[in-house]
Structures are given as structure tokens and as C-alpha cells.
Amino acid sequence: MTGHDHQAAKPWSESALTDTEFDRHHLWHPYSSMTTPSPVWQVASASGVRLRLRDGRELIDGMASWWCAVHGYNHPRLNQAATEQLDSMAHVMFGGLTHGPAIALGRRLVALTPPGLDKVFLADSGSVAVEVAMKMAIQYQQARGKPEKQRLLALQRGYHGDTMGAMSVCDPQRGMHHLFAGVLTAQHFVREPQAVFPRTGPLQHEPLQHDQPRDDSILAADIAALRQALALHHQHLAALILEPVVQGAGGMRFYHPDYLRAARRLCDEFDVLLIADEIATGFGRTGKLFACEHAAITPDILCLGKALTGGYMTLSATLATTLVAETISQGDAGCFMHGPTFMGNPLACRVACESIDLLLESDWQTQVQRIEQQLEQGLTPLRGQAGIKDVRVLGAIGVVQLEQAANVAELQPLCVAQGIWVRPFADCVYVMPPFVMNNDDLATLTTGIQTALGQYLAAE
């Protein structure tokens, strides 16, 4: 077939379709079907915490564009940083070259992250940050003369990304990647922690049964299960990977910081590295700058992404201790075997520096506490209602867990009709709003969730 014939054979031509039709027939959206696509809404512009649709409606964004737009949209300082960087260079390869924005970002990350994380690898997405961390752990063990330590231990209900290596450490049964189980590297898994994050507010978790063990008994059982898994598999384990305190896309679960503290101790005992995936939790989302701070621990390797650039562009960072980095560098390869094309992209690094400065100059802790209080107040009325399994809040994260998985195609339009943008998944209707959202907008957001869920559950 010639190029001309190939073009002529296409069943749809761009000129014959409206934008909506072209999108429906040609653009593949995340986790969507091309035969029965879910509805989408075209955004014309975004500013502050609002998305302006092409039809003129405005939606209060409760998702911060999948958790990354912590400063809201169209922020003048981030705009200015991007514009100024464009005047010098948008990109230059990082192999054999360096530049000011990458150095400035590295300085900030080394200073802000838990002590001991002194080596910074800049890549282009959260999934790649996880791939980099996994390769670091495996190459570290190889350089130590322990090539048999090449598997990872991960938590059930965990989620670490959509690339092949990252998928292998996501929950293999209940996760979204079970279809690929036969082609992914077989990793080891331990049950997810059952001891919940300690709460003192109105949403403190109540026992499911009157005879449920005390939290300390549950925590002890969690730690015993982790110890057992490490004792059984440590000779073949390069690292334990986990999402500290908050398991995100695996169910929006908040677990006890003492489990994280025990994980650090047990990894040391069994000679296994600890990888903390803070792609979702980093930069203040849980009320601490990094979720590891809830347990006052330093992982051997730390993954960052999402809010790193304030939602302006894709960028990730994988930080490692000096021991990990120097051991890898002294191995047979003499270097770390990874190098993405857009590694250390100057434009992304410059915006990331401005985003971090903007966060640190703000009273972000008070903002997150205020959001937590508003989410608790606004979501509490849903607790105990028919069809609602649980309501929980931590920092700037609010979760309504349903008894059954949500039908997104039915629930999403009900949320849009309330003037809010909320993207449910599985059995969770959750929000992670920008930190700059004011109380009135938070009230509209939570009231809209109450109304939309009331309509949805009544129709079920």
C-alpha cells in the first residue's frame, strides 16, 4: 500500500469530524475503551482551581489533575518561570552536559528530602522513577557480588505505575495489571497493612466488629507478616518497595506509620534495600512534606513525581543514598545503566524549582490542615449511609469508599452536573484538591459529592 493509498483508506478524515467526534474515534484516553468510550468533557482553559469547559461551564477541580497541580492552574510565577526558561533553552541532552536548572533542582531535593538521600537521578515520569529505583536496587546487589538478589518484595494493594517493571510490583490479583501477570517478572508480595493511620478527628476509624483486636494487635500481626516474608525470601530480594503511609490507586488506604518504621528496621536486619514511592504523597499531600516523615525514616531510594513541577509538565526524581550510588558506580559496569532522552529537561527543572519555592514560601502546612478539616466536615454526613463502606481523610486527601465498584460512566456526569470534577475509580470516590482551594470551593466540592452520590446510589 502506498502512502497515498494508506491515507485514502482511513475510515475517518479529520476534516469530516467535529473535535468531539475526532476525539471519540481517534484518541485513546487513560484506561478507556475505543469501542465503548466513556464520556469526556473538552477543557478550554484552566485557572486557579477551576476548569473551564468549551461549552462555558466551570468545574471545581477536586483531582488537581491526578494529584499534581498543588498550586492550581495558570499560576503567574510558574508561567513566568517557564517563559524565562524558554528564552534560554527548552531542552539539552544531559549526557556529557549539565545546566543551571538541574543543579538548582538537585540542591533543593537533597536539602528537603529525608537525610542521607544525596544522589539525584532526574527522569521523565513517575513510572520511570520506579523503573530507575528497581534497576538501582538490582544493580546495587550485583555490584556487591550478590546477583541472586534480583527480586522485589511489594505490598498487596500497592500501585507503582504502568510500565512493565512498575507493573510487576503492583498488586497481582486485585490490581489493574492482572492481565499481564503471565509476562511480568514474578515478584514477591506480602499482605497489605491492616492497622490504619491513627486518627483523632470525627472520622476516626471505628471497629468493624465489637470483638475486633485492638490496633496494636493488628499492627503486630502486620509486622509479623512482613518479617515472615523477608525471612523467607531475603536471599533473593534486592529491595522492598512500598508507598509510605498512603496506598494510592490500590484503594486509597491509609496505614499506620509504625508499619513503615518497622519496614525500615526489618530491611536493615535482612539486608534488603527499602524503596519509598512518594510519587503521589510527596510535597505535602499527607500533611508532611514527605510521607516518610510520619515515621521519621529515610529509605535507601526515594521516588518523586506528580507535584514536583506543580502539574506543569512531566518530571520525576529518584534519590539514593551515597552507599547505594557509590556501590553501583564501583560495580562491573562502572556506571548506572539508565539514561532517558529527556533526563534533566531544563524547562521542567526550572518550573520544578519555582514550584518547590512557591510551596515552601507558602504556609502549606496550615493550608493542608485546613483542607483536612473541611474535607472531614464535608464528607462526614456520608458515613453510615446505604451503599457507603467507609469515609476517611488524611491531609489533603478525602475518600468515600463505596460498597460496590462505581460505574464511572454513570457517576461522572452526575458530578459534572454539580459543577465539580471528581474522577472515581474502582470503589473509591476521592478528592485530592489543589492546596490553594478556599473553604467555599471545598464546601461546594463536598456538597456536590454528597448530592451526586445520593443520586447515583438511589438509582442503583
Please characterize this protein's 3D structure.
- This protein is of the alpha/beta class.
- The chain has helices at residues 3-9, 19-26, 64-67, 76-88, 100-112, 126-143, 164-168, 215-233, 257-269, 322-329, 346-361, 364-379, 408-417, 439-459, and strands spanning 43-47, 50-53, 58-61, 117-123, 151-155, 188-190, 237-242, 246-247, 253-254, 273-277, 301-304, 316-321, 388-394, 397-402, 420-421, 428-431.
- It has 14 helices and 16 strands.
- The model is unreliable at 202-213 (pLDDT under 50).
- The modification N6-(pyridoxal phosphate)lysine is found at residue 306.
> What is the β-strand count?
16
Rounded to the nearest angstrom, the distance between the terminal CA atoms is 51 Å
Number of helices: 14
Helix share, percent: 25-40%
Keywords for this structure?
single chain; 460 residues; alpha/beta; seven-stranded mixed beta sheet; four-stranded mixed beta sheet; 16 strands; cytoplasm; Adenosylmethionine-8-amino-7-oxononanoate aminotransferase; Aminotrans_3
Could you write a compact summary of the structure shown?
This protein is of the alpha/beta class and 460 residues long. It is built from 14 helices and 16 strands. Strand 1 and strand 2 form a beta hairpin.
